[in-house]
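Dear Dr. H.,

I hope your travels went smoothly. While you were away I took the liberty of generating a structure for the chain from your last submission, since the lab meeting agenda had it listed for discussion. I wanted you to have the full record in hand beforehand rather than looking at slides cold. The sequence, exactly as received, is reproduced here:
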Amino acid sequence: MWLGQEPRGEQNSHSQNVHQRRNPHQQPGWPPGGDGGKRAKAVAIAAATVVVMAAGFTGFLLLSGGRDDNADSGGKNAKASESASRSATASASGSPLGGGAAERPTIPGWKVVVNPKWGTAFDVPPGWDVKGPDTLIGFDDSKVDYNNPENWGKTVIVMSAPAVLRENWCLSDDGNEGRVDGTALAAAGTKGAKGAKSTADAALSQVGWWVYGGYTQPDKKSIIDDEVAKPYTTKSGVKGSIARARSRNTPQKGKCATDGKAMTFGFTNSAGDFVAWNLYGATGVKDELPDSTIMKILSTVRLHGNPTGS
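The corresponding predicted structure, in token form, is as follows:
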């Protein structure tokens, strides 16, 4: 069971100042505004440029510029703000091949998502937006005071080189700030699983945190997660373990608040390190990503080159 445990990985290296902010008109380096129990903001960091992305889940973060996707400690259903710089956003997003890697999709017409750090790749349908390999995505922590600069960047869980489905799937202004923000429908990516004892451990220790961070926090009682991971082999022959989690009757409120689901596939890369492929999305909505599509995406997970990180 994941409850009460921290996800496998190096702990909270995002505690340094990463210039998070919640208002596209604020200057870089300003702290994010405190929303208390309100929905948190989505943030993108492209190199030294702070960009507020038009994408988000609960505490949904897009951090670009070489940060460590193993950061995971531990908001409310997250909103995102409009982009402050389209050119900087494009730089953060990268190419359709996740940074220009010479990789072809295994499913014709799909897009390739490459993660050089962990030496992995997978395919997503054409409607997905593939971000760059230096981009992190994850959730902020509703219990953390982000007005304190020492807490900037602390997260529930993050992963790198993600792909996002419909960044502006739901639009709202729950904070009554006079600005419409967007919530994404789903996202997928890869993160390290340092400290995991097995592929099953890598999967089980992470999957619940995506549902908690994105759809239920600070509540854990509404989460249903697997107690035992199941063996799985991708089409390329990568063997590992999968675990699922979902929420039921989340207590979160707001126009874009929904229940959610997640799947994590734990495996080892070519360096022998435990890593985890993760996908999460909204449930109980008209546009819910079908489980059949999730499994089809999962089937494309494969090793890619020599990992640059550990």
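Two observations you may find useful: The first strand starts at residue 41 and ends at 42. The domain at 13-303 is CATH 3.40.1000.10 (Protein Transport Mog1p; Chain A).

With kind regards,
E. W.
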